Automatic annotation (TrEMBL):
Mitochondrion is among the record's keywords: no
GO molecular function terms attached to this record: calcium ion binding
Protein name: Cadherin domain-containing protein
Keywords: Calcium, Cell adhesion, Cell membrane, Glycoprotein, Membrane, Repeat, Signal, Transmembrane, Transmembrane helix
Entry keyword annotation includes Lyase: no
Species in which this protein is naturally found: Sphenodon punctatus
Source organism superkingdom: Eukaryota
Cellular component GO terms held in the UniProt record: plasma membrane
Localisation: Cell membrane
Lineage, highest ranks first: Eukaryota, Metazoa, Chordata, Craniata, Vertebrata
């Protein structure tokens, strides 16, 4: 029904619109319509075509347009019917808010006629809005102590409708506690207030739900509701209540800590902080506070200390429960303790020795112990014990004292320390025990000698070892400790035959480090002199007296290849020759010519010798036995074989590295003696020539120097080693550990803290220990009481907070004083300083003694008022009964807590102020002020608008804390000249006050003109005629009178003008011809200025683009272009770039480039060379080379380039271009003279030997195909036979003599001349010139023949070095030295044999030097000397004519593999007779050598 009624109302209003269409006003051109709000989109408004007399056929969006200032278009024109229709749904409240009349203005623009008509549509109100609350739910919090008649403001409902359709009244749902009172303001507004009619009680009803209804006066009426939730705030009007007055509980004394003994529980009917209960002990003794803990939140009493039935079987506690206010309740807790065996025995170490010597006798006292058990009876009887496996025992000495003594002998090496656990066990059920650990260190005595790791030691060292080298290391250990375990090493020198004082060879050969046991060599051993060394080493500890151990050491000397083979036959003569061997020419292959015999002083494989034919006159004629050294013929002697055959035989041992020696053997192939004698003379001459020619090995001049340095180094090292050994002997020292021991006679007693109270007596018990007599004496001291303690409070200042609403008779607990004294000396009475508001109540125990106080309370006698007196200071005094009496005081500070019993009051009922409408935002308009006599949160005032319209809230802002009213929006006198609203001040509770504020607005010219562009053309061609319309403007000023009159203007320099067309509409037109090239765009600033004082103006900028026409041809940057390109350029390379610009725009400014080909002689159709050589990029203007240019063929190129734009028709411009080809250094110089022949020679130039310096011999002539500096040539003499004889002209190329020709100058002079150009990089050519130095042709021929002979002699002579006359003397000395060395060697060999025999008799064991395991066939006996031979291989590199022979010895490959030995750098086995030296003598093996 409501929807049908609404539809009928809309129909009536639409008919009314048709009837009441405003009449046409020809003078003003204004039409008016009226429609109701909420019409659907497309609803009919008016017939514009009929009212304006427009032709329907000519209606279109290009001819007629609606123009409005707002962003939203509410209306649209139907071009088919000419009707004005709604463009969307229109809401009057949204557009006009609370305005009585809602008008929408717009203009109708006839674009073809450039004519404007004003239109105005009135929007009428309908009842389309329901009164609404914001928010829909309101929560009010009211204390249950609030007095009757209290008022509480409610939120007003909002209804955007006007008149009868707006808000009319309020209704409240029924409630016995609340009623509704509606106040009507001066502006006619309705302000609802909630009034308290009946007292509230939160405990009966905590929440009241009400419904507030707001209704309007429409037909039908509309209404809105809001839920009001009144929460009753709690007041502390209920005291806590314990569940029972007395709590009793029984516990065992051995319950664990943190165990919950009992829980007390109190309840409070209040809520929130008033309901939160805190539990505390009312009066708790210090001892009880250390045993029990009360959880203040849960009421749990837990055990935090140790319960002891013997100490206290009963505990009485008083517990107090406090709520969040000042109310409390008390209860008593009785805890009974039951006895159990809960005390373990205690062990106290009275006397203690932490270390004893391992040779201490049995019965030595270690520790004195005391055991004690706090329990009584059998629970207090204690038995002590230790583990039976320990060498100790416990002996009871006196009462509960035990002594720990040794039971048997101790050994530190078996057990260096003991952790002795003493266990004390009582006789309870179950028994309890306690253990104590005593750490005892066993001190060392020197009862163990050092022990070597091996029973005997064997070491190996190579001969020729460096002095001071480490041979082996001995290690001995001592199980003792400290100095007793410190081991030092020394050599025990063996006694040699000849007396006790003779020098032992051991002391001069080896030494031992006294601390590390390392054995060092004091000299370099020689295997040929000494092969084995035996001695003893002593290891001695640092004890007192010291103990020692000896060990035998055998040191084997290992052979090293340090002796070269010595050739015994053929023996060298004094002149260096070895004699001549004869071989018949008729001898058959295999004929024994002679035999080379050699020996090696080394042994084993180092003495295995092999023979090799190193050099021979006829390589295939002779051969040498590899093992025997026999020289035999390898083939038959031929006639062509020379009579004299020179052989060089190399003898090499098998050591590492191998050493060798060589011998020359001369063999004469002859059958008769005369022939031999004839050849011997030539042989001697040849030998002399060989000696002078340097055919042998060159001497080594530095060898003597090296040998001298080696001898000095070894001697210095040996001397330093002796000095170090002596210093080491002097530094030996020993320390004797001293054991200091003493007896302590300290006094030991029981801690003073052990007090026992019996019948009020204070007794102190302790014992006196006589350690020497092992006797204890008991002592007991009684302590009597004095009045030496004054009563004292835990806190000297007590602060109590009491609400000013607290009723008289309220009680507040106080903490009692404490007095440690007893009897009459203890606390007796309390006194309180005089106060009319408070008194003191002391509640005592039934016996009436003051020191048995049960409760101390402060009683309120008179109501409090914080505003009169906020703080009360009292003094509480506690007095004891001593003589003289002592007292203690406590300051009690009572702070009266504020209650919200005062209402805020404004300083004035009405606040008035005048402001200008142009006042800036954030400016303070006025400040309202209210005061409240309360304090704290009750005094905190918050300001708010009582009922503020939506528009007013957007303009003014009220600071809720300071009361400042500031402007946050724009004031407009034309819109509203007066603002009235109410301010409410609310304190922290529910009390408030209301005041009124009136703000008058004074009018100023504060509105600038508004400039709207109705139509604009963004661009026009530059050839547009004057008078072309650019834009249509509309100006408007919200001010009235002269302030609203507006004048428009533009800068006079622009080619435009403004013309007024209709009312406030202006048209912007062109004033003269335009040129885009001079100005491509205009920013036209239109300024609208009103006639106010001062005038205000607004500017709008119209951006206009001038469209281009093709009226400008392209223009090149230069009148002519010149380019350069180097010859040999790559094809496609960029040569130069041409640039042409066109001041036009777009296609008219797009430039393309092309070549204009020149016409060449020969006809019009001939191909131009330009097109085949270059090209141009049509867009960028870059010129590219189509081929590689050659400066020698083409040096210049001329052509034209055309630039054409993209206009219609197109315009073009031509430019001339000249391209120069630059030369590049790409041609080497060409030598014309002297010209090269077919065989590569250049001929011979003749120069007389008598020519003077500067004589012109010849001239080198050269040319270069390049040009410029690339063709500049310079000449240089690159190479010459005689560097200083000739010179070449730098620029001319002339070859001239630089000095006179000398006799030593060669006949033929070869010159190399270099010809170089000056390019970058330079190129060059060279030519060889031969110059012959001769005065005539016969001389030339003679010199040429001698030159050839000399060359032949140089080729066959092999060195041509002049003989050295002094060489014979050196050779003689060398022969004598070698002979002497050989003789000395024989004597040394004989002495060595005798020494080996002697050593074998002296030492216990020895090695045989006989080679019994080697076949006899491998020995060659010459004069009683035997040499051991063995096969091996080598490489020999011989260079003819070098006067030196280089021998390379590779690593040998042995057929037999021997086990390696871990000795000083010994990696290969050594064969000594039949034994192979190994790590163990019983594992040695022997290998046969084949």
């Amino acid at each position: 029904m409501a929807a049908a009624q609404r539809l009928r109302d809309c129909s009536r209003r639409a008919l009314l619109c048709f009837v009441l269409v405003a009449t046409w006003e020809a003078a003003s051109g204004q039409i008016r319509y009226s429609i109701p709000e909420e019409m659907q989109k497309g609803a009919f408004v008016g017939n514009v075509a009929k009212d304006l007399g427009l032709d329907l056929k000519g209606l279109s969006d290009s001819s007629v347009r609606l123009v409005s200032r707002g962003r939203t278009q509410y209306f649209a024109l139907n071009y088919n019917s000419g009707h004005l229709q709604t463009a969307e749904r229109i809401d009057r409240e949204q557009i006009c808010a609370r305005l009585e009349k809602c008008m929408l203005n717009f203009q109708i623009l006839l674009q073809d006629k450039m004519k404007l008509y004003g239109a105005e549509v009135e929007i009428t109100d309908i009842n389309d809005n329901v009164p609404s609350f914001e928010p829909g739910e309101l929560e009010k919090k009211i204390s249950e102590m609030t007095s009757l008649g209290s008022r509480f403001p409610l939120l007003e409902a909002q209804d955007p409708d006007l008149g009868i359709n707006s808000l009319q009244g309020y209704q409240l749902s029924s409630s016995e506690h609340f009623s509704l009172d509606v106040q009507t303001g001066e502006d006619g507004g309705k302000y609802p207030e909630l009034v308290l009619e009946k007292p509230l009680d939160r405990e009966q009803e905590a929440v009241h739900n009400l419904i507030l209804t707001a209704f309007d006066g429409g037909d039908p009426a509309r209404s809105g509701t809001a839920q009001i939730r009144v929460t009753v705030l709690d007041a502390n009007d209920n005291a806590p209540l314990f569940s029972q007055p007395v709590y009793t509980v029984n516990v065992m004394e051995n319950i664990p800590k943190s165990y919950t003994v009992i829980s007390v529980k109190a309840t409070d009917l209040d809520e929130g902080p008033n309901k939160e209960i805190k539990y505390s002990f009312r009066k708790n003794k210090e001892k009880s506070s250390q045993i029990f803990h009360l959880n203040s939140s849960t009421g749990e009493i837990t055990l935090v200390g140790d319960l002891d039935y013997e100490e206290s079987p009963l505990y009485e506690l008083e517990v107090q429960a406090h709520d969040g206010g000042d109310l409390y309740d008390r209860a008593q807790v009785v805890i009974s303790v039951r006895d159990v065996n809960d005390n373990a025995p205690q062990i106290a170490i009275t006397s203690f020795v932490d270390s004893i010597a391992e040779d201490s006798p049995p019965g030595t006292v270690i520790t004195l112990l005391n055991v004690h058990d706090q329990d009584s009876g059998e629970n207090g009887e204690v038995t002590c014990s230790i583990p039976s496996s320990l060498p100790f025992q416990l002996k009871k000495s006196f009462e509960n004292y035990y002594s720990l003594v040794t039971d048997r002998a101790l050994d530190r090496e078996q057990e260096a320390a003991y952790n002795i656990t003493v266990t004390a066990t009582d006789h309870g059920a179950p028994p309890l025990s306690t253990s104590a650990t005593i750490s005892l260190q066993i001190l060392d005595t020197n009862d163990n000698p050092p022990r070597f790791e091996q029973a005997a030691y064997t070491g190996y060292v190579r001969e020729n070892n460096p002095r001071g080298a480490s041979i082996l290391s001995l290690q001995a250990s001592d199980p003792d400790w400290g100095e007793n375990a410190r081991v030092t090493y020394s050599l025990l020198l063996p006694l040699l035959p000849g007396g006790e004082g003779s020098e032992s060879p051991v002391s001069s050969s080896i030494s031992i480090h006294s601390e590390s046991g390392a054995v060092y060599a004091l000299r370099s051993f020689d295997y040929e002199q000494l092969r084995e060394l035996r001695f003893q080493v002593q290891a001695q500890d640092g004890g007192s007296p010291p103990l020692s151990t000896n060990v035998s050491v055998t040191l084997w000397i290992l052979d090293q290849n340090d002796n070269s083979p010595e050739i015994l036959y053929p023996a060298s003569r004094s002149d260096g020759s070895t004699g001549v061997e004869l071989a018949p020419r008729s001898s058959e292959p295999g004929y024994l010519v002679t035999k080379v015999v050699a020996v090696d002083a080394d042994s084993g494989q180092n003495a295995w010798l092999s023979y090799q034919l190193l050099k021979a006159t006829e390589p295939g004629l002779f051969r040498v036995g590899l093992q025997s050294g026999e020289i035999r013929t390898a083939r038959s002697v031929l006639d062509k074989d020379a009579l004299k055959q020179s052989l060089v035989v190399l003898v090499k041992d098998n050591g590492q590295p191998p050493l060798s020696a060589s011998v020359s053997v001369t063999v004469v192939l002859a059958d008769s003696l005369p022939q031999i004698l004839s050849e011997l003379s030539s042989l001697s001459a040849s030998a002399a020539a060989a000696a002078g020619g340097g055919g042998g090995a060159e001497p080594q001049p530095g060898l003597t120097l090296y040998l001298g340095i080696a001898v000095a180094s070894v001697s210095g090292l040996f001397f330093s080693f002796l000095l170090g050994l002596l210093a080491l002997r002097l530094r030996r020292w020993r320390n004797s550990p001293l054991l200091e021991s003493g007896a302590s006679g300290n006094f030991s007693g029981v801690p003073v803290s052990q007090f026992v109270g019996i019948d009020g007596k204070c007794l102190l018990n302790f014992q006196i220990l006589l350690q020497e007599k092992m006797k204890l004496l008991g002592v007991e001291v009684e302590i009597s009481d004095l009045n030496d303690n004054a009563p004292s409070f835990e806190s000297g200042e007590v602060e109590i907070k009491i609400s000013e609403l607290a009723s008289p008779g309220s009680r507040f607990p106080l903490h009692e004083a404490q007095d440690p004294d007893l009897g009459i000396n203890s606390l007796q009475d309390y006194q309180l300083s005089g106060s009319e508001h408070f008194s003191l109540h002391v509640q005592t125990k039934p016996d009436g003694a003051k020191h048995r106080v049960k409760a101390l309370e402060l009683v309120l006698e008179k109501p409090l008022d914080r505003e009169e007196e906020a703080v009360h200071n009292l003094i509480l005094t506690a007095i004891d009964g001593g003589d003289p009496a002592r007292s203690g005081t406590a300051q009690i500070r009572i702070t009266v807590v504020d209650a919200n019993d005062n209402t805020p009051v404004f300083s004035q009922p009405v606040y008035t102020v005048n402001v200008m409408e142009n006042i800036p935002k954030s400016s303070r308009v006025i400040t309202v002020k209210a005061t409240d006599l309360d304090e704290g949160i009750n005094k905190e005032i918050k300001y708010s608008f009582r009922k503020n319209k939506e528009k007013t809230s957007k303009i003014f802002q009220l600071d809720a804390r300071t009361g400042h009213i500031t402007v946050v929006g724009d004031l407009d006198y034309e819109e509203s000249a007066l603002y009235e609203f109410e301010i409410q001040a609310t304190d922290g509770g529910d009390r408030f006050d209301i005041s009124k504020v009136e703000i008058s607005v004074s009018d100023v010219n504060d509105n600038t003109p508004e400039l709207a562009i109705s139509m604009v053309v963004n661009s026009v061609p530059e050839d547009s005629p004057p008078g072309t319309v650019i834009a249509l403007l509309n100006v408007h000023d919200q001010d009235s009178g002269e302030n609203g009159e507006v004048t428009c203007s533009i800068p006079s320099s622009l080619p435009f003008q403004l013309k007024k067309s209709f009312e406030n509409y202006y048209s912007l037109v062109t004033d003269r011809a335009l040129d885009r090239e001079q100005e491509a765009a205009y920013n036209i600033t239109v300024t609208a200025t009103d006639h106010g004082a001062p005038p205000l103006s607004t500017s709008a900028t119209i951006s206009l683009q001038i469209l281009d026409t093709n009226d400008n041809p392209p223009r090149f940057e230069q009148a002519a272009y010149t380019g350069y390109v180097r010859e040999n350029n790559p094809r496609g390379a960029s040569i130069l770039s041409l640039q042409a610009s066109d001041p036009d725009w777009g296609e008219n400014a797009r430039v393309t480039y092309s070549l204009l080909l020149p016409l060449l002689p020969g006809g019009e159709g001939s191909e131009s060379p330009v097109s085949s050589s270059i090209s141009i990029h049509s867009e960028s203007g870059a010129v590219y080379a189509l081929r590689s240019f050659d400066y020698e063929q083409l040096r210049e190129l001329r052509f034209q380039v055309q630039a054409q734009d993209g206009g219609s028709p197109p315009l073009s411009t031509n430019v001339s271009v000249t391209l120069w080809i630059l030369d590049q250094n790409d041609n080497s110089p060409e030598i014309l003279y002297p010209a090269s022949r077919s065989d590569g020679s250049t001929g011979v130039e003749l120069a007389p030997r008598s020519s003077e310096p500067g004589y012109l011999v010849t001239k080198v002539v050269a040319v270069d195909a390049d040009s410029g500096q690339n063709a500049w040539l310079s000449y240089q003499l690159l190479k010459a036979t005689e560097p200083g004889l000739f010179r070449v002209g730098l620029q001319s190329g002339e070859i001239r003599t630089a000095r006179s020709v000398l006799d030593k100058d060669a006949l033929k002079q070869s010159l190399v001349v270099l010809v170089k150009d000056n390019g970058q990089p330079p190129l060059s050519a060279s030519v060889s010139v031969t110059v012959v130095l001769a005065d005539s042709l016969p001389q030339i021929l003679s010199e040429l023949s001698s030159l050839s002979a000399s060359a032949a002699a140089a080729a066959g002579g092999g060195g041509g070095a002049e003989p050295q006359p002094g060489l014979t003397l050196y050779l003689g000395i060398a022969v004598a030295s070698v002979s002497g060395l050989f003789f000395s060697f024989l004597l040394g060999l004989l002495a060595l044999r005798l020494r080996r025999w002697r050593n074998s008799q002296l030492l216990e064991s020895g090695a045989s030097g006989n080679f019994s395991g080697v076949p006899v066939s491998q020995f060659v006996g010459i004069d009683g000397v035997r040499a051991f031979l063995h096969s091996y291989s080598q490489e020999a590199s011989l260079t003819a004519g070098s006067r030196k022979s280089q021998l390379h010895f590779p690593q040998p490959n042995y057929s037999n593999t021997l086990s390696s030995q871990k000795s000083c750098d010994v990696k290969d086995p050594f064969l000594l007779g039949e034994e192979i030296i190994g790590n163990k003598n019983d594992e040695q093996t022997a290998d046969k050598v084949s």
